[in-house]
Write a structure and sequence with these properties.
The chain is α/β, with parallel strands linked by helices. The chain has one domain (5-244): TIM Barrel (Alpha-Beta Barrel), CATH 3.20.20.70. Strand 2 (16-21) and strand 3 form a beta hairpin. The two termini are 15 Å apart. It has an eight-stranded parallel barrel with strand order 1-4-5-6-7-10-11-12, surrounded by seven helices. Helices cover 37% and strands 29% of the residues.
Length: 251
């Protein structure tokens, strides 16, 4: 059985890791490189770094940060935020990132996924999808959840796969930062409709929440931020309990 992955997510603003609730009320929680090194030491399978303040002026700062992260950790890491072209992706991959995550720009220009996958391979491309449930429909949002689109979660995930995405990282905006559990029915549906791995994001508050999304939610990986950043759950303890519950993880 393929091992489930545990992935801390580090939202980066101006070089520091920040966290909020429902994408708002951000506050600084630590140094991006130091936190990555610590999570690697604890046994995280991968890391995700998202530049949530991405702009042309700050892009060079984030690129230098990626170089520092690559030197400091020995596990795979994905970077995203403001990637709007093949050149953006190339710069970050050349700086040491193992994968890149595309979100807003891919919704506006879906061919971006195809372009990056054609150049580097699907294994390097993660399509991140932020969505919220409105009148029973899971609507895709962009720009950090601030803009609602006419795209629907499941159809967009299928299109992203067809265009060459190697993984889907779905964040439920309704659950993000609440620590009330993941949107398990949606992950289960994504897993049933897709042939590529699904990463669950948004809502982790306990070991039980993570166990649930990896089993009932059928997710291939669980991504979390707050519970790791604030020391609520340590990765070795989490993995030990998941093993005890019969969930295959790497120790």
């Amino acid at each position: 059985m393929v091992a489930k992955r545990i992935i801390p997510c580090l939202d980066v603003k101006d070089g520091a890791v920040v966290k909020g609730i429902n994408f708002e009320g951000l506050r600084e929680v630590g140094d991006a490189v130091k936190m990555g090194v610590e999570y690697s030491r604890q046994g995280a399978d991968e890391l995700v770094y998202l530049d949530i303040s991405a702009s042309r002026e700050e892009r060079s700062t984030f690129t230098r940060l990626v170089e520092q992260i690559a030197l400091g950790i020995d596990i795979p890491f994905t970077v995203g935020g403001g990637i709007g072209s093949l050149e953006d992706a190339s710069r970050l991959l050349d700086s040491g990132a193992d994968k890149i995550s595309v979100n807003s720009a891919a919704v506006a220009h879906p061919e971006l996924i195809s372009d990056i996958a054609s150049r580097y391979g699907s294994q390097f491309v993660v399509c991140a999808i932020d969505a919220k449930c409105i009148d029973g429909v899971w609507r895709v949002t962009t720009h950090g959840g601030s803009r609602l689109t006419d795209r629907e979660l499941f159809s967009w995930a299928r299109e992203a796969q067809e265009r060459g995405a190697g993984e889907i990282l779905f964040t439920s905006m309704d659950h993000d930062g609440t620590r009330n559990g993941y949107a398990c029915p949606q992950y289960r549906r994504l897993a049933s409709e897709l042939d590529i791995p699904v990463i669950a994001s948004g809502g982790a508050g306990s070991i039980g929440d993570i166990a649930e999304v990896l089993t009932e939610g059928c997710a291939d990986a669980a991504l979390a931020a707050s519970i790791f950043h604030y020391g609520q759950i340590r990765i070795p303890v989490l993995k030990g309990e998941l093993l005890r519950r019969g969930i295959t993880v790497r120790i």
